[in-house]
TrEMBL record:
Residues 216-225 have a biased composition (Acidic residues). It comes from the Eukaryota. Residues 52-197 form the Cyclin-D1-binding protein 1-like N-terminal domain. Gene3D superfamilies: I/LWEQ domain. Residues 200-215 have a biased composition (Basic and acidic residues). One of its GO terms (cellular component) is nucleus. Residues 200-225 are annotated as: Disordered. This is Cyclin-D1-binding protein 1-like N-terminal domain-containing protein.
Amino acid sequence: MSAASDIQELETRLVKAKATIFVTIRALSSIALDPVIDSSAAFPPDLPLVLSNLLKSFRHSTTSLALSFKPPLTIPAALQQLDKFTNELCQASSCVLVAASQGRAGVMLDEWRDGVMDICTEAVRFLDVLLESAQSGASGSGNEENPYLHHTALVWDSIDSLANTLSATEAEAVIRRWKMDTAVVKDAWSEFKESIEGMEVASDRGADEGGKQGEAEDDDEDEDDLMDFGSDTITRTEMETVESIKPLLQLLQILHGFLPRYMPSLDLTNGRGRAIVKCSNSFITAFDELVCALYPEHSSAVIDDALKEVDGAVRETSELLRAGGIGKDGLEILEKWEGKMKGEKQKWDERRLGLGGLADSLG
């Protein structure tokens, strides 16, 4: 074969490889999000290990394929590595499809599917760059640098992202997702505390500070205010509100961090794993809204609305724990937590009523 025909063969195979990966992506995308789950279905116990090994091998194949395009282009080696690259990615995708076919729908399947789809997406982009490299080589306009090194690294990153956190069981996948959300809760609270601690405590704002003065502002100033999400000062009343609600926020963090220790004993069949993750998402959203409501110039009404959302998330989490089977010890701890939470809510209600009476007297 001539050099020109060799290049043409390589280009054709690259296009076919891309088409194969597109078919794989469509197959993964077609996995039902909520299929009928048969918890008794046989599940190959070594499937997570098979997928893990395939990811490691595929990473090496990606490297070898990239190196084969290093000038001067070695077409036989490129074709050989391309076949291996494509086959191993298809095999990794097959692991996900096998898991889905065996009724293993849940958080673990979502993790596997999303991870492999990300790899497939980066693999297609990588092949696009290799195709451009092959075409530029055929026209004699090749560059001494490797234009595909960046995309090689992106494929590596997508592989590592899944391989380094690959769950072997539904419990592992749910715990990992839950702990990620716990970190979000802690970060939101830490960021808020650091922000408040750096503020100057000022006298309470005048009754008409946001009234007549605000009405006098022109449209341009109003637009500037919309872009100002922070404040350098906090009033004494606002700081007292933060301090009074701080124990409640700390209790919420304790509740969210409470579940992982009981996760292995929870019933995760019939889609309960996804329900747990959904519950966690609701929890962190409510927590974040409550924290945001505490920033300077907040109102009791906004805080109360946020607390209602928190109450709903707390009820959902408590019901989930009770229904999941956390045992006698777990129930005792949960009931003790609920008692403390009730006490802190009562304190807040008393303070809110006090602030309402103060506002009426000032009015």
